[in-house]
Structures
1.
Amino acid sequence: MKLASVLRVLVAALLLSIHGCSTVSTQQVPTPVVEQGQPLSAQQPAIKYQAPGYEPAPGTTTAVATNKQTPAVVALLQQAERQANDGDLESAAASLERAIRIDPRNAVLWHHLATVRLSQGEPMQAEQLASKSNSLAPGNYAQQSRNWLLIAQARRQLHNAAGAAAAEQRARELGAR
Amino acid sequence: MLLAILLAGYIVYLDFQVRQQFTGKRWSLPARVYARPLELYTGLELNAEQFVTELQALHYRPVLSPREAGQFSRNKNELHLISRPFDFWDGQQAPANVRVTFSAGKLAGLTDASSGRALSLLRLDPVLVGSFYPAHNEDRVLLQLDEVPVSLTDALIVIEDRDFFSHHGISPAAIARALYANIRAGGVVQGGSTLTQQLVKNFFLSSERSLTRKLNEAIMSLLLEWHYDKDEILEAYLNEVYLGQDGNRAIHGFGLASYFYFERPLAELSIDQMALLVAMVKGPSYYNPRRHPERATARRNLVLDVMAGLELITTEESARAKARKLGVSDYQRKAINTFPAFLDLVRRQLQRDYRDEDITSEGLSIFTTLDPQVQWQLEHMLGSRLDGLERERGMNAGTLQGAAVVTSVQGGEVLALAGGRDPAFAGFNRALDAHRQVGSLLKPAVYLTALEQPQHYTLATLLDDSPLTFTARNGVVWKPGNYDRKNHGNVPLYQALAHSYNVSTARLGLDLGIEPIIKTLRRLGVEQQLNPYPSLVLGAVEMSPLQVTHMYQTFAGGGFRTPLRAINAVLAADKTPLQRYQLSVQSAIEPAANYLINTAMRFAMREGTGRSIYQSLPASQDVAGKTGTTDDLRDSWFAGFTGDRLGVVWIGRDDNKSTGLTGSSGALRVWRDLFTRFNNPGWVQPAVEGVEYHWIDPKSGSLADAGCQDAIQLPFITGSGPQQQAPCVKEKQALPDPVDWFKELFQ
């Protein structure tokens, strides 16, 4: 993949995340119908013993779950976007790392860091970071779908066509959920 | 004729020397090591006291109303400050005039002081925590001419070399004046040296007073002026001049002197402070303001008078400046490095990428991950808890030693590190170099190996804790026993780990085989030699606290291995980026299996060997962790993590004798002291996909329902829940569907 097109995708993704939209126009991901951060009370089993077995509603502990980024994180995302636009990818990565320090379980930030690494020609690390993003986005199929698309690109850079196709398939399935 | 040729040859030789050395002059600049910069934003966990501590470490000055960078004022929970500009890896942070308010342990508001507009984020300049010096101990803060206040260069020139801008390196008028004065006094009382000559003397020559040296000095000064312009010479002088001594560290240049005497950058000095530095040029020892304040004051005032006489400042300014105290900070013979144990780690990580001489002489700026707030707390808590343990147990003071590491859970950044109970001691670094048996800290690797085979093992699987005698092929007999000397029959797997039962763990380890457990340890990032003996499963392996931290980092990071980093970035002396140490992750354990092992370690905190943690932590605080105790109570370990921080603590003795402490009566209490000070929101590992919950009867390990006594909910890897129903389920019913929140959520 050409650097310029990776950058375009990156910038588009950053822009979208900043504006709270949950689709990526350049990629074939259907608009998800789920909203994050729904309360769970209706389905939650009665808890008689609040031991470690008891869990909170999934995804309620991060800002991304409510699709709301804190102003500090938004500022750093915007800065990362500017830096990526200027071709200063390592500074963009540094800004994203700063954002991760502030909101470490924000799957969106890990996804963008993966995107930057991919643009920097580090497909292996990009795939790992995208997997990390997946692990932080349980139930957020739209985010997972974006991560799998990125993993597909990373695998293609590594000349792993079969792996890339499988990742794309996964992205489609998740996108359709 | 011959003489002329010889002289010409000599001059050519000197010329070569001058150009060679001046052009190629590279001051060896020590590396500066910085803590992480404090990022201010609404919601940050920080109270006003902690913030002020940080500002003090940055040498911000409390004033009534801040007017310049590096000043702040405080009114209870509201602070007003002007931050300093700073060159970071990713560009310069501009100064900002801001108001910061705190409420309930958090930063509640960050606004621009002039416009009142809310700011999203401000990065302060980072605390300087140490330097790496070259062997000859020269220190400098290199300045460019345009960074030096004009008042200072003006004062310097009028005092030391009034004709500087007009002479050609030597000043006959000055020499005549000095000669006259010296003859009248009958000895050398006044120098006629120009700044150029002084520089040449410092640069190229010895300090002996001989005619040859004087001659060389004069020739070289002329040559220097021939080749270089005044600004270059002045800049070199400002950086070279000797201005004091700090133990065996020589203070060179106005940049460093400003920090050494006033603890602030040159640009922030007042006119009287600049005058004092200029006054000291004549004799930094004789006019040492800390040792001889009267002499220093008299000469400073002389400088101010001369400045007023030449109308560089007004008479009123001069009078006001002369009325001021010297304003020199208290001399503290500081250990050069505030946090020697952490700096030791930094240096070792640097040595992988840089030669030693580059580290000490190339003027690198090293941005570390150190969080001074956490480091201060850790040092305090470790020291006071060890004191307390010794008192409690009637031990001689100083018997116990300890070490600890604190990291960020997702980024693997080392936030704090203690290499012993005396934080100022720069010797043996136990966090890195004390390799001790880890005991039960190893058990999670055994249980994880089991849980990764969901068709065979779940958290509810009953393990046999009855007495075990194992005879190895070589005939060696192994009879592990439990710490409480009891056997507990059949126990569910999660309880065997939570209570750290040795016998059931040993049996589980033998069933699994040692090789798969070693493979698991490798995936967790354990790199040292591991002997494939059965005793390995009970922790017969020696690790340093840092290595243990690396292993637990993977659990805390949701199954992703993260290299521990003490450095974020390195800048060259000219502030160009040299290297970044990137955040990177490597998937090592399936998140679902990792979730199960973390759940078992959370049970260890709620019900098992770590439950005393909740004597001071609120019940809402989610913690996962494991205690470790070795034979004869030699080592007391605890490794535990919350949603955002991981801490590993070791307590032992340098002579490796018994401490009388278990993991929970020793190390865990240090951890608890420390983590009680943090506000750790959130869960150890929020829910993951591929896990479902079932009600379980812990006695039988079978399915229960909410009505069963003692029934608990346990997570299982999807599809691995037990098939049998416990007797307590009153009406046999069709097996209930497992709880799958994700499906429910997104159906």
2.
Amino acid sequence: MSDKVIYAMYGDDEVLKSSAKKLVSGGVKISEVYSPFPIHGIDPIIGVKGTRLGIMAFLYGLTGLTLATIGMYYFMVVEWKMNIGGKPNFSYVENVLAFIPISFEFTVLCAAHGMAITYLLLNRTLPGMPAQNPDPRTTDDKFVMEIRLSENHGLSEEKVDELLKDTGFVELDKKIIE
Amino acid sequence: MQKEAAIREPLILGNKTYHDVTEDVCRPIEGKAPKMWYILFSIALIIGLYGVGSILYLLGTGIGVWGLNKTIGWAWDITNFVWWVGIGHAGTLISAVLLLFRQKWRMAINRSAEAMTIFAVFMAGTFPLIHMGRLWVGYWVLPIPNHFGSLWVNFNSPLLWDVFAISTYLSVSLVFWYIGLIPDFATIRDRAKKPVAKRMYSILSFGWSGRAKHWNRFELVSLVLAGLATPLVFSVHSIVSFDFATSVIPGWHTTIFPPYFVAGAVFSGFAMVQTLLLVMRKAMNLEAYIHTKHVEYMNIVIMVTGSIVGTAYITELFISWYSGVEYEAYAFLNRATGPYWWAYWSMMTCNVISPQLMWIRKLRRSLLFTFFISIVVNIGMWFERYVIIVTSIHRDYIPAAWSMHYPSHIDIAVYVGTIGLFFVFFLLFARYFPVLALNEVKTILKGSGQSYKESPDYHKHH
């Protein structure tokens, strides 16, 4: 099924934002915005929900903490009570102070790497992936709004064009995607 | 868009647009490297290779080729290790702690400071590994069961904590740095004309497209990583200091060590950032982005952390007397007046007096003076570690065992070699990587750029 996509390119982030506001209030669904840097305040306008990656980071950190605790309990208390200066490790609690640094480091290690890997997978940004921005200038100084007609059933192309007309875009491009 | 007070000095000078920022950062990467780059790179490479050769000789012969003896089992090796780890503290501090404090001036310097951090930690990691003598069994520090039974590595030992701290710090810093680099690699990718460059930056940029949702995640990931890296920065040098503080050697057995080491690390790290950036901003024409105000901010950090370090030195000296422990008192008396007095007083001059000059506004805004002090500080911080390590152990409890440490030429070659290798890495970074965080600098252009701040309608709307 072919789909018609409208790309409206802007030269300024603030102009794009006010244009997006106007389009959304006119009932247009903006599929995507490509920008060279994060545009603060664009997410609620175009309906991008806040990410839950922070929760993931917390869970990864908790996993790390648990693994470190179980590991050190097993290595130092169960498996081999290492006798250091006549003080063998008879219980975890008695030795917990010595285990804090590694518990902390391992928590951070798991949280940071777990989150980073999840982030790359969610974004599908991995080595060898092709670039998907519609115009190479969107990583320089241009801001592009993508409107897919298939996602705007109630609106005709002419209506979208009319809404876009006075928004101050610098270029308007239309493509048919198969 | 965030606005800030008009009386604040702009962070980006001149009449820059978003496109100008891209141009200014990408031009040195896309153009031909200047002759000076090749000269510096060759010098660094030769010194680095000499260091690698010395390390190979050391591995083949044994660590007897160092100037160590029975009394002084740690000297230049661990001094260099702590020195490099310390230098490696500025990058993550700048990008993580200053991000949490919303300090916008970090954006011009965080990329190169983090690169410096990563390369410095590489160099640091070399020393404990080669100090093992048998590098090929270096993996024994990892928690794997012993070949002969169920004996594990000692989780009660600060040396093992260090293994975890340094490896976590290195890998987390690397990830933090790279996640910030991905969108900037995408910028270079989209501008690249030559097929090889296009292909390389395409791989490096992981197919980044700058979608709104991705930016949303990007900002959260940066924030959370900063939150994780902040306690990490402080923990790493605290743990390095535990290597000494948990022992019972007079001069090492000191509870003040963790904060004292962290302050010292930030102090030396910022000094190294100054040394590198003052040259880089000139060589790569980035004066509009890294200017006097940035240098001044960094000098203030140097002044504050230098004062903390100075206070720690004096506290240490006072407590050694006040404790009434004669061995402790002797360790410090010996530092200041014994055969290593010159090292002690070099440390005192470089680290206590020189940062105090930064109280004078004219001096802390002088680039030439800053460059000079930044080198003085790093010399001083090397001496600090040398003083702590060598003077504490060279005269122990039995006078018959008293000794002196004389570095062998291998000691010197390995140390100088790591400086060479460090510059090899840094020069490659400056040549092929975006040295300024493009996407971050663009976000502050309107709020902190000179042309915007001076425009008549800057204060009208908000």
